[in-house]
Amino acid sequence: TYKAQSNSLFSPALSSRWRCCVVISESAHAQYEVIMNVFQDAVCTLNTLQTNASALEQVKRERGHPQLQLQAMRGFLQRAGLKVSASQGSTCAFTEQILRNYGFRTGFYSSPHLVQVRERIRINGQPIGKELFTKYFWQVYCRLEETKDAHGGSMPAYFRFLTILAFHIFLQEKVDLAVFEVGIGGAYDCTNIIRRPWVCGISSLGIDHTSILGDTIEKIAWQKGGIFKPGVPAFTVKQSDGPKMVLQERAEEIGCSLSVCPDLEEYQSEDSLRLGLAGHHQRSNASLALQLSHTWLQRHFLTGLFVPQIPPAPAFQPSPAMIKGLAETEWPGRNQTLKHGPVTYFLDGAHTTRSMQACVHWFNEIAPQHERNAGGPVVRVLLFNATGERDCGAMLKLLVPCLFDFAVFCPNITEAIATCNADQQNFNVSVENMLTRCLDNQQSWRVLNGQEEKPEAELLIGGGLPLVAERHRDTLVFPCILSALQWISQGRDSVLSDPNKCVIPVKPSINAKAALLREAVNIHVLITGSLHLVGGALKHLDPALNS
């Protein structure tokens, strides 16, 4: 039970209503309810720091002085009482897993989260617990809240706050090392305030966030190279000539060595290296992770013996811990397969044309393997959404050759009900804009498949979010992820048939379109276009992620 000293879990600056909640509890259940209430209040408070649409426009206008953002970040860290003197996506996951296999206590910061915000901050590979998240959240938030009046009322935005929180947690939890995935770009990203990291890495570059990073791969490379630090070894994978030259120039300008990682096949191993993550593109990420972890181990144990200027990264013989780390790496929502009886879900958070090419390559390799074992007709379904300024048409064009029987579109709303999990809430875009984007994507799909240009839409659900379906059987737009998954699975997925889940009624005419889904031996669903879409789907498909 909580006793008086349990107040040490929370900052004394918390509102009185929460301090009153932390008292001696009658039972473990009541204690759990207290933790959950305060945790949910923390997440809801965190959501108030999300940048709204008008503020986002202001941020874009202020991009002419991006260095001010790093100055602001240093100011927030100082106000939070932090001093920090301490890589990308699946590469970070490989790196963290390898070094954890050596017995080090690891911290891992990444974005975005799929189901719960706690996933962004991990200790030894596991999301920070709800109790610790709540404790450290209020410690940081209250320090910033108490000092905001002296700083023009400023509070850090959502991602910046979480970055500060990650630094605080890793320092308080005394990790041996922390792996940080850069948010957007590099040069002016709020993670880029560490003056002397042990090692830096840049994975394969693609076109993304063009309004912020620039509209060419060379401009994006310049931003990415901003994470380089004087005298700190840097690694990258094989890049095309343009960005490769920019990265080399950035390394020379900043004063660090830059090495290109060898192909994974060049590493000396008795057997071919097995990866825990599917997809051919993960091989370059794995090679980069080997170089990052190998360099950290060298510098950690041989400090003072490191020579800054090194030749191109050589292949070496991976240790058993490295081999084990590559094989055991898990990164939900990236080239992930979930089989629920007759329904198989292929989930990948690809959201750029480059990553979508890799997703299509992976799907075209793995889906036929499952279809050969089906023993009957298989229906292919695409569930797609994309956000921001991304080129949806280009991504959809890459997906057309996959020959889907149905293309389903929905916004990144987990459920069309008021009790939607706070972890999944996004206040940066309106529901109307999200649904309009879905209709635009549906129209693009029709054009790409040679169908009519302007079909009529029918609103099927009154008194709330609309369920929009077109007269063609092959394309539909749903108001939320749950309603889309329920229609696709047609009651054949026991996880989605949970009586506790709300079932959104659909008109008989729309259910009639699903005859093919009901008659097929198997249903194969590719969910892609957005990590937020994949995360919302996993919230329903993998209940363990909600615990």
UniProtKB/TrEMBL annotation:
The protein's annotated pathway: Cofactor biosynthesis; tetrahydrofolylpolyglutamate biosynthesis
Cofactor dependence: a monovalent cation
Binding site for ATP: 334, 348
Key words, A-Z: ATP-binding, Cytoplasm, Ligase, Magnesium, Membrane, Metal-binding, Mitochondrion, Mitochondrion inner membrane, Nucleotide-binding, One-carbon metabolism
Enzymatic reactions: (6S)-5,6,7,8-tetrahydrofolyl-(gamma-L-Glu)(n) + L-glutamate + ATP = (6S)-5,6,7,8-tetrahydrofolyl-(gamma-L-Glu)(n+1) + ADP + phosphate + H(+)
UniProt subcellular location: Cytoplasm; Mitochondrion inner membrane; Mitochondrion matrix
Known function: Catalyzes conversion of folates to polyglutamate derivatives allowing concentration of folate compounds in the cell and the intracellular retention of these cofactors, which are important substrates for most of the folate-dependent enzymes that are involved in one-carbon transfer reactions involved in purine, pyrimidine and amino acid synthesis.
Protein name, as recorded: Folylpolyglutamate synthase
Organism: Sinocyclocheilus grahami
